[in-house]
Amino acid sequence: MPVPRQRRLRGGIDLGGTKIEAIVVDQSYSVLGRARGPTPTAGGPEEVATAMAAVMREAAIAASVDAAALTGVGVGSPGKVDQATGAVAGARNLPGWNGSFALGPTLEQLLDTQVALGNDVEVATNAELVLGAGRPYQSLLGVNWGTGVGGGIVIGRKLWIGRGDAGEIGHTVVRQGGHRCTCGRRGCVEAYAGRAAMEIQARKLHGSGKQTALFEIMRERKRDRLTSSIWQRALEAGDRVAARLIDDAVSALGAGIASAINLLDVEAVIIGGGLGVRLGAPYVERIVAAMAPHLFVSDRPPHVHLSGLGDLSGALGATLIAPKRGRAAHVAPADAPS
Amino acid sequence: MPVPRQRRLRGGIDLGGTKIEAIVVDQSYSVLGRARGPTPTAGGPEEVATAMAAVMREAAIAASVDAAALTGVGVGSPGKVDQATGAVAGARNLPGWNGSFALGPTLEQLLDTQVALGNDVEVATNAELVLGAGRPYQSLLGVNWGTGVGGGIVIGRKLWIGRGDAGEIGHTVVRQGGHRCTCGRRGCVEAYAGRAAMEIQARKLHGSGKQTALFEIMRERKRDRLTSSIWQRALEAGDRVAARLIDDAVSALGAGIASAINLLDVEAVIIGGGLGVRLGAPYVERIVAAMAPHLFVSDRPPHVHLSGLGDLSGALGATLIAPKRGRAAHVAPADAPS
To answer: Which terminus of chain A, N or C, has fewer Cβ atoms within 10 Å?
Structure first.
């Protein structure tokens, strides 16, 4: 018997360096349930997978559905994703995840449904292209300004992934011999603009006696790291250390994105990610201003937009890759792929 | 009457910031004649067009053919090329060429044959793709290391030109707030690696008392600028100023190309251009070494090749866009495009 139409719900999980976001959508991508939890900062991949399954189950409950009844769950994951085996390797912004871990199969067991994996920034870029700010464009660059700085390239309305790893705009070198990046290299955009790298700099400045409210706000809000909302509060309070580090971040993003435009000349740039979405339009305007002096064709800058899907671009993008027909065994012949 | 098959020869002109190279090829792209002349350093676009026509005629004579008997001539030009009108604008490495000039129509009159124009780096990249080192690849980045630093992107064996201006790898920012580039911006790859920018730096260092043989060699060889062969001679003689400036150039190229690979993840990089071809394989190896510390996926670097067509990639690429059927009036109905 075909799976009833009203049961054709899918899940999407966005695994970030700071938080896990899960949603349940119907066939028209309306969000029926959502949930969010912090990404574990200790342990290893197993702990992360357990936390992901818990957040997904919570979103399913919010949508009044059992997770096992979803036709499938899509996951946007950092690191190198092997779509065939469901393994994720080198997700360096996650705890103890330097090797490879079978994230897909583990989640399938925990959730009792099919799971498909994709690269986090690629799925988010695809979500903007299909459902968000990228809809009018043939070519664009998605920039994910969060714990790290990732990117996705769209050419001819298709994701361009190169040999599998295209889009690493966070590792464009903007200052030869500059700051050490969290990737170990020097002078990358992410060394200035990644939330993780900014936190390292803030701790250094704080440790060397510079006054900042960043860590006070962190303690008040019972957090163990400087989340995007903590940065936002500190900036609103006129914190000088926060302002200086954000200035450097905006400047590095401007130079890196302008360099990418000089090379690719795509129609649009879409800025998302935890920091991008939290700081919002005024900071997109600041990035546009920081790009301007570096644009080779200066009289025809690209369109630059804030993510149209906000916090949900990653999770919505994950639902776009979620299995849509349920387990093969549950699919009646009439409903099988033609 | 159809044009006789043996007369189906085409011309190609590569207009560089330092020299003009012209060739005549047959249908299998064998070079039957070639000539070369310096690019005028004074005057304006008219003078450049006159010099181009003279070099083209010389190449035709070497191929025992009259320029007017060529089915057409292709031109690879710097600046912004309007293929429909044959106008070239903003070729800033050429004398007095800040505005727009009808290069195509002017050459058609001077040479009495059809002329088609293309962007210099795009035609050179296409030549490498079709006839040279790029033949095995689906995706690549062509880098033209010459008076300026240009680039061409190939994706799915097709040139990607974005909104018309993709490929400007020379204007990737590698040092925020760094040297002033010849484009007026700061910290671009070209500010360190372009022959024109390197000459400005050499004159500064020479003027401030640094010992260098560069300008002596220039006078001996009766040149009015530091050509690629002058740089090569100075390097071979152990000139310290030349070595230091080339070190900076290699380092900037390494950072810029690695950033482009992090973003695009293409299979191969092909290095050509006046300096690239003149300095050759040992310097390609040095660029590969300078890229290494910046490659995000460090265990799978792209293939990096020296141009397979050497000095002729620009001119051969120009012949690929040359009109192949002669003037419409000379073409019999049986030979007209179907």
So the answer is: C
Which residues partner with A183 through β-bridges?
none
What pLDDT digit, counting tens, does each position of B293-321 carry? 999 999 999 999 999 999 899 999 999 99
- pTM, whole model, 2 decimals? 0.89
Nearest to A168 among B173, B174, B262 (CB): B262
Cα torsion through A163, A164, A170, A172, rounded to 10: 0
- Provide the number of CB pairs (under 8 Å) joining chain A to chain B: 119
The beta-strand segments (E) located in chain A are: 10-15, 19-25, 31-38, 72-77, 80-82, 87-89, 100-101, 115-119, 140-145, 149-155, 158-160, 268-272, 303-306
B291 touches chain A (CB under 8 A): no
**Homologous superfamily (CATH) for B5-123+314-335:** ATPase, nucleotide binding domain (3.30.420.40)
* Closest CA of chain A from B317, distance in Å: 21
pLDDT, tens digit, 9 for 90 and up, residues A179-229? 999 999 999 999 999 999 999 999 999 999 999 999 999 999 999 899 999
> B180 has which bridge partners?
B186
Q: May I ask the CATH class of domain A133-308?
A: alpha beta
CB < 8 Å from B in window 206-265 of A: 251-252, 255-256, 258-260, 262-265
Segments making up each domain of chain B, as ranges: 5-123+314-335, 137-308
Topology, domain A5-120+314-335: Nucleotidyltransferase; domain 5 (3.30.420)
Interface test with A, best of B140, B141, B176 (most A CBs within 10 A): B176
